[in-house]
Amino acid sequence: MGALGARLAAVLRAGDLVVLTGPLGAGKTTLTRGLGAALGARGQVSSPTFVLARTHPTTAGPDLVHVDAYRLSDPVELDDLDLDWDGAIVVVEWGRGMVDGISDAVLDVEITRATGADVDVLADDLDPDDVPDEPRRVVVTATGARWDGVTL
């Protein structure tokens, strides 16, 4: 998942919106860590579950804004975070249905893992995305003219 994040970093630019969807432990935060590392993000890229959003300045261009919409009840709460949608690369975990209308161009990344691969990582005080290597299925859907001709 980290390698996929690094690969995505090569095509992302300011104003891009990436929505990550998948169950706990699917690899959403790990993907974002890989993205952050490739962009030269400062600070530890970790799940923003309790702070809702973290901004990571980068050495290579626009800031990386990492959002966790899991605890938000509606899109108005996301709007209240006053994020830099146009000047940063914004990654929203659990963002499906929460970011509608924010951008005409969205990179939607859906991650699933085999149902038999569930691991009780919370009992071990591990980040749900730090589970042992397990098979994942990733479907990336790019919508909007921004993604015309972009190879992922």
Write up what this structure looks like.
With 152 residues, the chain is an alpha/beta fold. 16% of the residues lie in helices and 23% in strands. The protein has a six-stranded mixed beta sheet with strand order 2-3-4-1-5-6, with helices on one face. A hairpin with a 7-residue loop joins strand 2 and strand 3. The longest helix has 12 residues. It is globular, with a radius of gyration of 15 Å. It starts with a helix and ends in a 9-residue tail after the last strand.
Shape: globular
Are there runs of 5+ residues with pLDDT below 50, and where? 120-124
- Order of helices and strands, N to C? HEHEEHEEE
CA radius of gyration is 15 Å
- Give me the count of strands: 6
Task: Report the major sheet.
Answer: 6 strands, mixed
Helical residues, percent: 10-25%
Strand order of the largest sheet: 2-3-4-1-5-6
Q: SSE layout and pairings?
A:
Layout: H1 2-9, E1 17-21, H2 28-39, E2 53-56, E3 64-68, H3 75-79, E4 89-93, E5 106-113, E6 136-143
Parallel strand pairs: 1-4, 1-5, 3-4
Antiparallel strand pairs: 2-3, 5-6
Helix pairs in contact: 1-2
